[in-house]
Queue: 4 jobs
Job 1
Amino acid sequence: MQLDGELIKKDGHDYLMKALELPDYYGKNLDALYDCLCEIEADIVIVNAGAVDKDIIDTFKDAALENDFLKLKMFP
């Protein structure tokens, strides 16, 4: 699955909710994102990662460390 950092920057949690098919109860905050990422199985590639807020990138990285079924790659 490929995510576009420019769209994450522009539409934030709304974009992530749609792109990652997060549940309707997703809280649209970093804690909720971390919780959801820790529960999914996915290979995620973030292109234009330089456009993404550091806190969001850190949330993806932390979740990937916690979840063996979440693989993460990022490209500038």
Job 2
Amino acid sequence: MLRVAFEVDDWNAETGVGWSVVIKGVAEEITSGIDPFAMALRGRLVVPLAPGSREYWIAIYPSEITGRRFRR
């Protein structure tokens, strides 16, 4: 397991509202995991924006989640 931070941001130009969420925790590869949690995660539909194949699944087990919403 590896300690990680993952951030997701978005901005709506029409409304002038943005948001940011940060998750901190530990990451673990679940590509070949046979436990119900790993299997359920791998069953989710994921549509990446960047082209290319995806060979590995990584789960983040969060210890802290923070976020904010802001306006221009």
Job 3
Amino acid sequence: MTGKELDYISKAHSNRILSGDGPFTKLCHQWLEKRTGCNKALLTHSCTAALEIAAILVDIQLGDEVIMPSYTFVSTANAFVLRGGVPVFVDIREDTLNIDEQKIESAITPRTKAIVPVHYAGVSCEMDIIMDIAQRYNLYVIEDAAQGIMSTYKGRALGSIGHFGCFSFHETKNISSGEGGALLINNPKFEERAEVIREKGTNRSQFFREQVDKYTWVDIGSSYLPSEIIAAFLWAQIEEAESITTRRIAIWEQYHESLYSLEVDDKLRRPIIPLNCQHNAHMYYLILDSSEKRTRVIKEMEQLGINTVFHYVPLHSSPAGKKYGRVQGELKNTDHFSERLLRLPLWIGLEKQQQKVITAINQLKSLKNEI
């Protein structure tokens, strides 16, 4: 917490507007629009909700295909499966672990409706190529920027490049409200309908702007608004977005510098950040040489009181992924890196304990091949 969260929650309570779209929600919307340059930002109760709204806006129908990486969280696929869509899983790049833009075009069929690039660890996908493919094939691009707030691609904020962008403010994210998210709309023609879908299919927002004399059910939708209490908590975090990002990057860079010698000795691989990407230090991970090595490292670190974890189980290998999706080509990188990736602790306040983590990694017997 930054220190102002509970104060702002108290103010939200005194405003007597708790159900959503109050003063704190509007502050968050204004900041997101100014920071990213999107046409309109709408807070949601999760990034999952933002993805679901996007799926409705692009009119995903039964059998429509959506190209995405398999190495992502389940919500990336679920939002489209709920509309009857078919996730088409393609492989990831060896450097950033993002969707391999060179494999997207071969996955396109007459049923393809959208591409969903996932900006893994807050590092941008190769958006120029992806947007070019989308334009040539008349496809929508929905950026899953759940991990990408405060990150940029060639100077442009993640989430503002595709037709839509989706942020997460889950407690595991850099800027958090416990649960929460936002939909960024980059084409004005979708703004009005997005408001309606977010408001349970009603034109309630138009009513409060006095554009209609009463509000009613006009479209499909659901309850996607966060409460004003959530928005108040989030606003306290947003006010400190710059300092949070600066501190996280400092932690990330300390890891990167301190683990250089282990990479030189071929004990592990550090993250790779392309020159045209400014990341937000959402995550620091290591790539080890086998899943067995990863298991041993996790156990050794646990014995030292340090929590290290792996990340996604690829969707194409999950029961639901096999049932609802299909695989395009071989997913060698997806399988390879998902079995070897290890995440290190990274959170504001770690500074005082980070050296303990670094020292432990450099002294691990499993990395020195002593066990």
Job 4
Amino acid sequence: MKKDIPIRKVEDLVVAVVPRMEHEEDHEDFWDTYLINLKAEPIYSVIVNSAGYGELDGEQRRTTTLRYFWEKIEPMSAVKIEPVPISVLRLANEYWISFSFHNYLYDKKYVFVPGSLEEIHFTEIPLLARKGVMIR
């Protein structure tokens, strides 16, 4: 039965959105999204679904849903998920992460709501040594 299935909380996994550095290509047009594994062990079969949605210029908009897969993400490491055009930052940006850890399938939705990707919300991003916005 459904009540017999344990629901385990996702811990030590971060999604971060950071502006590109001035020396990086297209630094004025794009930010980058990272998945950061802060666990002491690797995670496996990592699937990320990303999509943007919300109102933009008076119209409801929805971006294409993109999917990414990593067979393994090492402990204490970061992988770049995707570049995000600055125009899309005004939408809600959703990242749904699924992964296997200790033979259990975890999933969690991370949503950067409109207005959350502003400099007043910046913090130091672990392992990247850069400032941006992150959700644990």
